[in-house]
Amino acid sequence: MSDIPRRAAARTAKLAALPLGFAGRTALGLGKRAVGMASDVISADIQQRTAEQLFSVLGQLKGGAMKFGQALSVFEAAMPEEMAGPYRQALTKLQEAAPPMPVASLHKALAEQLGEDWRSLFAEFDDSPAAAASIGQVHRATWKLKPARRNARPKTIAVAVKVQYPGAGDALLADLKQLSRLAHMFKIIQPGMDIKPLLAELKDRITEELDYAMEAETHSAFAEAYANDPEIFVPRVITSAPRVLVTEWVDGTPLAQVIADGTVEERDEAGRLMATLHFSAPARAGLLHADPHPGNFRMLPDGRLGVIDFGAVARLPGGHPEAIGRLVRLALDDDAQGVADGLREEGFIKPDDEIDARAVLDFLRPMIEPVAVDQFRFTRAWLRAEATRLSSPRSPAYQLSRKLNLPPSYLLIHRVTLGSIGVLCQLEAEAPYRAILEKWLPGFAPVS
Questions:
Q1: What is the pTM (predicted TM-score) of this model?
Q2: How many CB atoms lie within 10 A of CB 147?
Q3: Sign of the CA dihedral 133, 173, 7, 14?
Q4: Rounded CA gap, 392 and 234, in Å?
Q5: What are phi and psi of 171, to 5 degrees?
Q6: Which residue ranges does the record assign to the ABC1 atypical kinase-like domain (predicted)?
């Protein structure tokens, strides 16, 4: 019997208990109001306690809960500093670690996926996991390469072996079902964060992410697109099976460590490379890396950005939609009517909705500030200010946002872009983002 199904009841119980705890804290808040305590103090207290319990539970879970925690963690920079500070370390742990599966379960999975003689494929295999993914764990090993000539000494290569947790598929579905009931709790922590589309999107892509053979295809496409690239490194795929993926090992500094204690120059360069990957991949590979949490990236000793996980991707065979670049350029050129007309054509404004074009442009301009100047530094303070502007019911931006639509075809692009911005704000990275867009984003370069 696999490890994950055995613990399913306990995991579900922890998740199910969260709304009860929230209800109790809300009742406590009502009691405090009865004795005259200020409402802003009460709500801050409830908010902090909710966050504490939520992150604590997510940190103990695998499957969908951990995957959701990883996705949520990139939005940490948007949270108020007094709340984000105590939980930053816990969120980082979600990106880098989880309890390992038993060695017996590991060996059984390898035998099922690579054959009973799986040990003969490796010169060495470390049973202790080097890292954890959301639905599997990674082991360091030494792979035997087939010799080019008969009787030649076999060569070896350091590899990362990603092995899926037994029962991960069922656990992932169960966790996401439970988490879908908690969306209102996340609004207590960050009122402007719309969680339901994120959950729906994660659920839609479970099948792809559970199939490591499919991941191997997209991984190989990225590796081919960035072969010999001076800035981005994608390790080669060595072999794959539906539940096991073997790739070249990547040594480097985890991006979470760069965020925590990197120099200004190191953080700036990491941000520039993250933005380059985000905008160049659709043009070069027809794919968008769709899981931009820091655990998926390493800064290599030679200065390149190493990318080590391709389980979540968006397929963009034509590159980024040309309309995105064109509309951002129109906004920079102060063409309010052109922006409104373009948004209506793309489905962001419904055909029959009357809307003030100038108000729409005023709504968008702060968001595109990073590409309105030659150099821009993303900061947590900037992101918190934007989150406040967009989430406060008294804000004109909040009122206008309720009238705008997000077409399904843009949902993943939107979510990945927000996630990437969250990482750039964690890095507090300064770079020439406008120049990166002019090079890689269709429709954005000014007409000469």
A1: 0.75
A2: 11
A3: positive
A4: 41
A5: -65, -40
A6: 93-340
Buried b (16+ CB within 10 A) or exposed e, 329-346: bbbbeebbebbbebbbeb
| 8 A C-beta contact, residue 272 and residue 198 | no
Angle at 28 between CA 26 and CA 34, to 5 degrees: 110
**Alpha helices in 334-392, H assignment, sequence order:** 336-346, 357-364, 380-391
β 253-254/305-307 pair status:
unpaired
Residue whose structure tokens are 């442009």: 361
DSSP 116: T
344 contact partners, CB below 8 Å, separation of at least 6: 350, 351
**For residues 252 and 246, what is the distance between their CA atoms, to the nearest angstrom?**
18
* 229 to 282, 291, 329: CA distances (angstroms): 15, 21, 29
- Summarised one tens digit per residue, pLDDT across range 289-326 is 988 889 899 999 999 999 998 988 889 998 999 999 99
Among candidate residues 246, 241, 220, the one with its CA nearest the CA of residue 310: 220
Distances (CA, A) of 20 to 13, 23, 50, 219, 392: 11, 5, 11, 42, 27
105-164 confidence digits (pLDDT tens): 999 999 999 999 999 999 999 999 998 766 788 999 999 988 767 766 778 999 999 998
Give the β-pairing of 305-307 and 232-233.
parallel
Smallest Cα–Cα separation from 87: which of 192, 195, 189, 199?
Answer: 189
What's 288-329 look like in SS3? EECCCCHHHEEECCCCCEEECCCCCEEECCCCCCHHHHHHHH
